[in-house]
Amino acid sequence: MTTFERIKSTAKSRGMNLKQVALASGMSENAIYRYNQGVDPSGPAIKAIADTLNVSPNYLLGQSEEPHVYENKPINLDDSDLLLAFDGKEIDEEDKQAIIGFLKFRRAQKRNEGK
Length: 115
Prior knowledge:
434 Repressor (Amino-terminal Domain), 2 domains, 5 helices, 2 strands, 3% strand, Lambda_DNA-bd_dom_sf, Cro/C1-type_HTH
């Protein structure tokens, strides 16, 4: 199984599509599809995808058959079943989108800073 196939299979088992995985990993929405066209993912990209999918990078690279799921699974803010609140009041969809926008901005800043 290729890295692309492992990412796709794992994403499906997590209820995500590849676009969602890419965006949650701080990548462009079509970045993962390039891995199916012979482009090898960088180390930071594999780490980000593994963190998003809650598996080890070695599993995605085919170096391990065990996904080694981490205990501290990240929260997916796109999950419609997730209830967010601040200051005792529910966060509405507009505010949720603003939070997601801010987090994407911060990820881009960190990538540019080399973190």
